[in-house]
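Can anyone check this?
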Amino acid sequence: MKPFRYAFDVGFDALNHFLADDGWAIASHIALSALMALFPFLIVMTSLAGFFGSQNLADQAVDIILETWPDQVADALAGEIHNVLTTTRGDALTIGLVLSIYFASNGIESLRVALNRAYGVTETRSWHWLRLESIAYTLVAAMVTLALALLIVLGPFLLEMARLYLPLIVEPKVHILNVARYAIAILSLLSALFILHAWLPAGRRLFSQILPGVIFTMVASLISAVLFGQYLARFAGNYVTTYAGLASVIIALVFLYFIAAIFVYGGALNAAIIRSRLPDGVTLQAAQLRARGDSPA
């Protein structure tokens, strides 16, 4: 009975801190920032793909990004995303691309604000260093996504080569590409969540302290995507009736809002577990500063 009581107490403590730290308001900030950062990020990714000489990589990368989204949400943005990917741009490596990178990094900054609040830490690093870090994360995310997309592009070729030499093993597993595409999306999200929780907010946390919130965020996000997809299948017309031409944007924004709330609660859950294991008199911020090797102010 004690484990269930402990889980309930920790979950309730996380909920209280989520509400006290304006978790719903932070989630709306993340959702709007993410939606506004999506298209600049696509511009950056398309420019990088063009630099490497393969526009198809950008298309495959978008598929990876949207793989775990409900079909109704992904389809609602498909037209606009296609326009971004197919527009010929002459601003690569110019001020236009620089601005796109900057605006895309705003999404990272919104996640930093959320995690700093969730973990109860005060940011002491200089703003310009934090912005450069967010820009670096944005560029790394774009390049990693393109690299993963390259695996998908090369998948059929590699599978065909394997079929020539190992037909009995490979032939029954042709469907592996579809499974691999979804698995890559899931693994990418898991890796991103670990990196965000470990390095984005101030202080440092151990892998074991990050794991519960990451698992919760991943599982709850997938469940939320399925449920939201089923909801849209029945009531998507309500958005069209209410928001007319803005329906696709609002649908994406609502979906991102729920995902962002889950992400923020995941951080609050980690913080609640850490608090439950601290000795009396040790604050959450002091514990995380100590883990990094700093001394609390």
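Reply from J.R.: I decoded it. Residues 11-292 form one domain.
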